[in-house]
Amino acid sequence: MTVTCGWADIGTATRLPITFTRMSAIGDDHLDSDALLGALTLEEKAGLCSGSGFWHTRAVERLGIPSILLSDGPHGLRIQVDGGDHLGLDASLPATCFPPATTLASTWDVALVGQVGDAIGAEARANGLAVVLGPGVNIKRSPLCGRNFEYFSEDPVVSALLGAAWVLGVQARGVGASLKHFAVNNQETDRLRVSAEVDQRTLHELYLAAFERIVALAAPWTVMCSYNRINGVLASQDPWLLTEVLRDSWGFEGLVVSDWGAVADPVAAVRAGLDLEMPSTGGASARVIADAVRNGELAEEAVDRAVRRVLELVALTQPGVAAPGTFSIDAHHQLARNVAASGIVLLRNDDDTLPLALSSGQRLAVIGAFAQTPRYQGAGSSQVNPTRVDDALGELRAGVPAGVDVDFAPGFTIPTEPFTTATSSQQADDRPLLAEAVACARDADAVVLFLGLPAAEESEGFDRTHLDLPADQIAVLEAVAAVADNVVVVLSNGGVVSTHAIEPHAAALVEAWLGGQAGGGAIADVLLGEVCPSGKLAETIPRRLQDTPSFHNFPGENRSVRYGEGLFVGYRHYDAIDGDVAYPFGHGLSYTTFSYRDLSVVALPQFGGPDVVEVGATVRNTGNVAGSEVVQLYVEALDPTSHRPVRELKAFTKVHLEPDESQVVVFRLTRRDLSTWSPRIGGWAFAPGRYEISLSASSRDHRLVGEVNVSGTAPTPPLDRSSTLAEWLDHPVGRDRLLDALRSARGGDLSSLLDDAATLRMIGPFPLTRLLAMMEGAFPDDALETLLDGVARDAGGGEQVFDARQTGWESDAPEDRPT
Ligand code: BGC
């Protein structure tokens, strides 16, 4: 039985050897921060608030404070020994290049992602690295974001659970993670200046949600603030973000580091809650911070707070806390292969074209430059120097049955510059390649065509402008499909590409994403049936760019980008408009089939605990091969009291089943899962009522659907001077007070005004203060104040705000988790 309930999913499903350390649990024997704070001069303290060189914190040798090394991340290490840059330009030490987050997310496999974190932590430990700069958990707002390959999903639950597993894995090795980019960094265009204009509810429910959950679940040792502004304020200098939300509300106890070069005003940054500015500014920041303390502009306590966190981080990461350790390059390469295979999404498989059924004497035609020159990671600061790289062509040759010939034709050249939709210049040069590809495909027993986005198209630093593949690649597909049946297309890309030009010519479509250094082997494993595909889309593949929810507001202009679509990102948008998509969120085929049965949806008695609903079902492998299914739980409010997406993912689990094997899955939903952020309350508002619960194979494939009525009291927003008549009448205390006041109006009882529904519809939206004023003389001038005082005096007033600590997340606090 798999018990799955948000946080517990991580604890019970991963079975990682997690030893958990909270910042506050650091042993004093390493560095006594109290004593050191007393011994450091103001200049030394100010100095510790920024880095030394590109990748180190500062040392204070006279007090034995060492410097520690921070480095990218996230899908492998980028430790630069000579020189440094944050754009992936200079060389770095060899490290295992695991698949980037886009591929990790498609596994929907918490345990596997935890293992990747663990392996990266082991490599970091072996290389003396104290903090790995990842994971990146920003929401994929638009498919155009140049860094989508580094991010997990359009959905915060997927991002949160997989991101948390990654953090727990890394930190189990005594190495810190850096949760980034906090926050609302969803594009590369103008990323150091742009202001993301987002409403509070969308912020909390979508853009902050994964960060919040990972902080609560995995307690990352550091959080990296982003470059951009949020509603006008630079993230690196935002007291609301770095202190009010991150520390006061979520209880974050670690260190906040800036993204590289994100700080404009070091004094404002320390005051807001930033602890460490990176990289070094050559002492300039230290000087202004020390001057600001001396002239009274900055409280010394703020500097002490930042220094204490730097000292605590240094203490946590010292060799005495965890031994350096070693790791096996081969074992990590194999893990990278397993993960890449698990993240491959079989989008389409007409007539069971896959797996390839080849036998001795047959010929496989492999076409497309990417088969030999794989795209396996994105460009920028995350670029890893791999220990080795497998290509699909070589792996297919090694994997096919004896006696099968594998022929190859590149078909096209890979552009070295970003291309426009109408790129045709390549075609003239590539005509001989195209002819060669057609010849290769003709009379072959099977044809696999590797298409994808050129490396130059996807990078940190800029966004894409369209979703198309280069026109010459499509020309090769069309020409090959004209001479061969059942063409299999394998895609390599970090951000989604439009599939409409591919569909008419492909019998099977495999989204292989960016597979990391062992991605070539992973593709061969899936094509040849060694691995049964089990990946699911963690983001929608839209039909057209014009259909995407942020189309009109991406990437903004004049240093500002308006998040006009609000909560309706990804499937939340497509479901709300019942819109067609190429492939829905959560979709992915298998070589086997699964049945879902015996749904039970039970409202739990609420004894003050977090859990409100338990959902169970049995999943069975009804096909002939072993395989894994991702069971997705979606929730729909049937009587919503606020504007909500139709359905939202709240939990998922991945189960591996042999043919005919069954497994019971159980999910638990918490109060928080059924809450929305209320800007009027300034907190999470539990929404009791009827819910439809679906256990699904994708966001558009709901296998079992049940209903549950969840009891409880919804919090009532407080009344204020602008509250309308309707709001007063909805308020459990305000209503009675108002009725009393109307009954005792000066000219006689006015309460009958409320009896007529038509009148109420018209005057309901009026602020009460205006109505009272219009009823000249009927009420004293201070009537509204008297009413508000009365409501405030009546205990509670019906307001039931709760914060993260009352949601149930705390009950599964990291300390309680199995080690
Ligand atoms: C990126 C971060 C990265 C840092 C250090 C920045 O440009 O945004 O993700 O960790 O550089 O390389």
Describe the SSE topology.
Layout: E1 2-4, H1 7-14, H2 33-39, H3 42-48, E2 51-52, E3 56-57, E4 70-71, E5 94-95, H4 101-107, H5 110-126, E6 131-132, H6 156-171, E7 176-182, E8 195-197, H7 200-207, H8 209-218, E9 222-225, E10 229-230, E11 233-234, H9 239-249, E12 255-258, H10 266-272, H11 284-294, H12 300-316, H13 329-343, E13 345-349, E14 363-367, E15 385-386, H14 392-399, E16 405-409, H15 425-441, E17 446-452, H16 471-483, E18 487-492, E19 508-511, H17 519-527, E20 560-562, H18 571-576, E21 594-603, E22 611-621, E23 627-637, E24 648-657, E25 662-670, E26 675-678, E27 683-686, E28 689-698, E29 701-710, H19 725-730, H20 734-743, H21 757-763, H22 768-774, H23 783-793
Parallel strand pairs: 1-25, 4-6, 5-15, 6-7, 7-9, 8-10, 8-20, 9-12, 14-16, 14-17, 17-18, 18-19
Antiparallel strand pairs: 2-3, 10-11, 13-19, 21-22, 22-25, 23-24, 23-28, 26-27, 28-29
Helix pairs in contact: 1-5, 3-11, 3-12, 4-13, 5-6, 5-13, 6-8, 13-17, 14-17, 15-16, 20-23
Bound molecules: beta-D-glucopyranose.
Describe the fold and architecture.
- The protein has 819 residues and is α/β, with parallel strands linked by helices.
- The protein is 29% helix and 18% strand.
- The strands form eight sheets. It has a six-stranded mixed β-sheet, sandwiched between helices. Strands 4-6-7-9-12 form a five-stranded parallel β-sheet.
- The longest helix is centred in the first third of the chain and has 17 residues, at 110-126.
- The two termini are 20 Å apart.
- Residues 72-73, 86, 133, 180, 259-260, 381 line the site of beta-D-glucopyranose (BGC).
